[in-house]
Task: structure prediction
Amino acid sequence: MDFRLLAECYRDELFTNILPFWLQHSIDHECGGFFTCLDRYGNVYDTDKFIWLQGRQVWTFAMLYNRVERRQEWLDVALHGARFLERYGADAEGNYYFSLTREGKPLVQPYNIFSDCFACMAFAQLGVATGDNQYKELARSIFHNILRRQHNWKGVYNKAVPGTRPLKNFSLPMILSNLTLELEDSLPHSEVEAILDTCVHEVMRVFLRHEGVGEGLILENVGLNGEFCNCFDGRLLNPGHGIEAMWFIMDIARRRDDVELIKRCKDTTLRILEHAWDREYGGIFYFLDVLGYPTQQLEWDQKLWWVHAETLVALAKAYFYTQDAQVLPWLERVHTYTWQHFRDTQAGAGEWFGYLNRRGEVLLSLKGGKWKGCFHIPRALYQCWKTFEAISEL
Result:
């Protein structure tokens, strides 16, 4: 693979196809914040605003301002979204709603802590961009509220009966492993290291199976002591989550010069791919049952944008950090599938499709909605661009 050409390809896609789509179509100049429900050509088909997507778009443009180029346009977009988040995003207790009307009236209660996680990321990155300590303090406040809620983050919105089948979910330790690094400039060093230690342990020792059922794979839910639970939730595999977490942990390991941990992340990435790759049609399954039983999720065999985007980042970093030749065939395979199936080549469209059926055909022609916004694709293109550049200089 020519990594210098790949770097140029990913960079050009970010600047000429992805960012212009969101800059042109998503900004709500009248009410503030961003539209995310955009059809194939960027037309708005619903005006509800989902807080985690608002935060993600603020983060994306603030991150690009900080790490690529100090373009005033990017900072202005980030500030535009942040003002909407500050004014309407949270309830009186500081918990962030799931969704609002276009004007900012609450629609769905703060049942989902991931709205808070991405608001926190947004304000932390904006604090770096502006040097404004108020943004950094807001990010710290949200972060500590997340930590307070982490063991019962759904609170009164939890549908499960307490005590009958207590499980813990992979999503929060996965996100905290990345979120904590985002706040590194705003938190004491000792606090950062302690949280990272916990995240690495949870991801690599509790949810990653070292023996027995699912050996070498990451379960989405385990018992409170890390035990396997033979039920729908306990058997669930979310390959995209597991692989995304691997590049988060690789970044932590690189920061700590932990070569062995990097190798384990690389091996786990390849193990998940070998298990979750669709041998018949190509692409990575959305959900699987670790014992091979039918899943609850009817969409289990769909191919999703974020799963493949995050896998590209993980494979790029795995190769950069290890130069293991076993990574290269997978990197080429996932790159080819992703660019052939998700990228929209229709003139005048822009952005990438999000949802394919098992055969790799476009299932929904939308470019944004309740779950897809300005985040996974631009972040992955940026990460791959920079990583491929670094590989080309080895």
